[in-house]
Amino acid sequence: MVYQAFYRVYRPQTFRDMSGQTHVKRTLQNALLANKTTHAYLFSGPRGTGKTSAAKIFAKALNCENAPAEEPCNKCQTCISITEGTFTDVIEFDAASNSRVEEIRDVIENVRFAPALGRFKVYIIDEVHMLSTSAFNALLKTLEEPPAHVVFILATTEPHKLPATIISRCQRFDFKRLTSQEMIDRMSVVLNDINLAYDEQALKVIAQSAAGGMRDALSLLDQAVSFSEDKLELENTLLVTGAISQDIFTQMAAYIQQKDVAKMLTLLEQLVADGKDPLRLTEDFITFFRDLLLLQSDDKLEELLEVTTLTDEVHAIAERFTAGNLYHYIEVLSKTQQEMRFSHHTKIYLETALLQMVQAQPTIDPEVNAKVAQLEQMISKLTTQLQQAPEPTQVQAPQLVRPQRGPEVAYKPPITKIKQVLKDATKENLNFVKQNMASALSTLQKAEEARFHKTMPVAASPSAFVLKFEYDVLCKMVAENTAILQSVASQLAYNGQVPAILCIPEAQWEKVRADFLRERSVVKEEQTTEEVVAIVEEDPLVVMPKQLFGDNFVEIFED
Question: Name one Pfam family in it (predicted).
Fold first, then answer.
């Protein structure tokens, strides 16, 4: 028999076999039991998370001879033929290779015919975002009002490319990336089934390399098993995945802490010579320092560690750095990772980042530590003497006048541009951004996605949209990072162009919105030009320059 890859042999055949996606499985199973299935579904999410598998399982459950049931029996002739791909009433359609309108018209013409064998005729359209505009238009009416015996299941990795008219006619299910533990559990089942011993850390490395995709994890596992002999060892998975061992991480961290630039760059040169990708190394170093932060926070977070295993050596490394150092390292590496995506000289970027990290490492003189210890002892003695001394007579102490702090430099949002967005804003553009914001942010790294905590799009025009931030610090961090803004904006392209992103804190947004509404009401009352000019001249941005330089030296221009 011809050998089949793991991801084909161990494709789940029931909802129970699927890893993760509990919200999807429960909703579909309840609909099957209650006979409340609808005519069109949209399965969206990253690759390898179970979209096509869920579609096939759902098609079997709809046509199973034992229906209604929350799971297909996989024993009747209908379930067996669907599993083998020979059931005529379950049609799989690859939109990537059949994107023209002519192929969709063939589907539409066959929709009106009743199913030959099953209860439902199920059309599974994979990579549906690859269809042309004409094909979407041809499918639109049929998708809205198909015959009662037809069910459409659309699967895509890029839902933002689908027309809103298609999405609104489907029940949408967003598939999430699988956790490392879910992938490890599934790979354990596969290895136990083939009677192969394995190292738990080896599965952890594969899960981390798969980045939430079960198909990628099983493909890497298949490759690692072929490379191994009697046992799946950690060294084998490191060679297959291109990852590096925990010893390399600890060595590099020790060199950074010791400011040993020569050994640090020599180790990096050796890793690159062994075929390690600098971009992948940067991502692994970010994850390693993130693990050290978790260990500093609480030892009970061991289950959340991704590239490290809790050992005495790792504990010792974590204690050598302060939390501020680790935050700085992650920030430097994250910026470097963004810059490396647009360059062919990735190794030079990583070397520069490591040098920045070494220079940021504080040097503590042993004599300074001794003096600090002496001062602490003196303070302790003085505190004891003050506690034992008799209470002095109450004398009114002079009031201390504390020096006033200078004004902190706050983030200044582009008010003029935001008001222009409000002027040209439409509800359709805003709804599009709201619907696709979550999927756009999911493409970012975890540290970058966290900067958009409690963020909400509040206005959108054909060329730009406004993001409101609850925290001023996060607003400033995002607004000053053009790489993150470009990455998010490219995922939210609409009207044929990539929109600009304008950031504003929540407190300032309320004021800008109120000012805009007031100005708009003034225009609606058809004020004279002189009155409008008077309102503009009362703006603090106009009054202050006039007070400083005089009316003759200040001119007002409309941006």
Answer: DNAX_ATPase_lid
pLDDT at 406 over 50: no
Start and end residues for every CATH 1.10.8.60 domain found in the chain: 180-241
Distance from C-alpha of 411 to C-alpha of 413, rounded to nearest angstrom:
6
Please state, in angstroms and as integers, the Cα–Cα distance from residue 533 to each residue in 21, 222, 511, following that order.
Answer: 59, 73, 20
Rounded to whole angstroms, how far apart are CA atoms 32 and 337? 46
pLDDT, tens only, 14-28: 998 888 888 999 999
Domain at 180-241, CATH from 3.90.180.10, 1.10.8.60, 3.30.420.40, 2.40.50.140: 1.10.8.60
Round to whole Å and give the CA distance between 290 and 533. 55
Q: Give the residue ranges of DSSP H helices in 95-199.
A: 101-111, 133-144, 164-167, 180-193
All residues at 6 or more sequence positions from 382 whose CB lies less than 8 Å from its CB, including other chains: none
**Structural tokens at position 355:** 């040098």
Closest by alpha carbon to 8, among 214, 225, 178? 214
Q: Band the pLDDT of 361: cuts 50, 70, 90.
A: low
Backbone φ and ψ for 558, nearest 5 degrees, come out as: -85, 120
* Of 330, 305, 173, 166, the residue nearest 253 (C-alpha): 330
Query: 415-526 has which fold?
Result: GMP Synthetase; Chain A, domain 3 (3.30.300)
At 2 the pLDDT is 66
For the ranges 247-261, 263-277, 298-312, 403-417, the lowest mean pLDDT is seen at 403-417
Residues 6+ apart with CB under 8 A from 259: 358, 361, 363
Question: What 3-state class would DSSP assign to 421?
Answer: helix
Q: Are 330 and 340 in contact (CB under 8 A)?
A: no
Distance CA 163, CA 133 (A): 9
Report d(CA 107, CA 407) in Å as an integer.
67
Q: Which CATH number fits domain 6-174: 3.40.50.300, 3.10.129.10, 3.30.190.30, 3.40.50.2300?
A: 3.40.50.300
pLDDT tens for 421-456 read: 888 888 888 888 888 888 888 888 887 787 887 788
For residue 32, is it left (φ>0), alpha (ψ between -120 and 50) or beta?
A: alpha
Other C-beta atoms lying within 10 Å of the C-beta of residue 9: 13
Residues 6+ apart with CB under 8 A from 487: 338, 443, 444
